[in-house]
Write a structure and sequence with these properties.
By secondary structure, the protein is of the alpha/beta class. The protein has six helices and eleven strands. It has one domain: Alpha/Beta hydrolase fold, catalytic domain (Rossmann fold), CATH 3.40.50.1820. The protein has a seven-stranded mixed beta sheet, with helices on both faces. α5 links the parallel β10 and β11. It is globular and about 45 Å long.
């Protein structure tokens, strides 16, 4: 298989060749790139394989995974294609690299968060968990997609209290929807930010990922 996306992969510095590792697939926001997400994942570099996936569509100096008709309204065919291609990419990378298939996580910001939540809903327990930062679940995903059981999928969802792109009510609506599907494995946090990721948010999701993956760490 030739993957649909360019990507950058980072390994823990002292890898055991006989071991498989937990992985975090990183999905960037609209107009950004995989390097920004790799920087966001820096606290996880010693314990996880990190895969930054670049959107395949140019947008200014950055990239995107799909285009929009209007804010909150993805071009459906492009969105459907991105979900299918990302699913295929996750499976491709799992076969190609020393990845533990029972510890696959997807972490996304904004457009990447939208896709991470959609992948959880369409892949179900094929993913161990997701981190969704400032996103939402499109209405057509809720009503028209073939949704899988996510009761065993761990979810860390966060939103900026002062988000000017996706207002905070969208964060609350998203959390309420996911809670109906996965009440015991959802963590929803609000941070005093705009449409971005604070240092506190970064620290919290990194600690959450380590704990969920069963990693003992002395990091603060």
């Amino acid at each position: 298989m030739h993957p649909a996306y360019q990507y950058d992969i980072q390994y823990p510095p002292h890898m055991d060749p006989e071991k498989k590792y937990p992985v975090v697939f990183m999905l960037h926001g609209k107009g950004s790139n995989e390097q920004n997400m790799l920087n966001l994942a820096a606290p996880l570099n010693e314990e996880f394989i990190i895969v930054g996936i670049r959107g395949n569509l140019r947008l200014g100096n950055g990239y995107q995974y799909y285009d929009l008709i209007s804010l909150g309204n993805p071009v459906r065919a492009m969105f459907d294609d991105a979900v299918g291609q990302l699913d295929a990419f996750i499976r491709y990378a799992t076969d190609r690299y020393p990845i533990d298939p029972a510890k696959r996580y997807v972490l996304g910001f904004s457009q990447g968060a939208i896709l991470s939540m959609t992948l959880a809903l369409t892949m179900g327990d094929q993913l161990r968990g997701i981190v969704a930062l400032n996103g939402y679940v499109p209405g057509f995903v809720k009503t028209e997609y073939d949704l899988k059981d996510v009761s065993q999928v761990a979810m860390f969802v966060s939103h900026g209290q002062f988000d000017t792109v996706f207002p905070i009510r969208i964060g609350h609506e998203t959390a309420a929807y996911l809670e109906t599907l996965s009440p015991r494995s959802l963590m929803f946090n609000i941070y005093e930010t705009d449409h971005g990721v604070s240092g506190e948010n970064q620290k919290d999701f990194a600690n959450w990922l380590r704990q969920d993956a069963g990693i003992t760490s002395n990091k603060e």
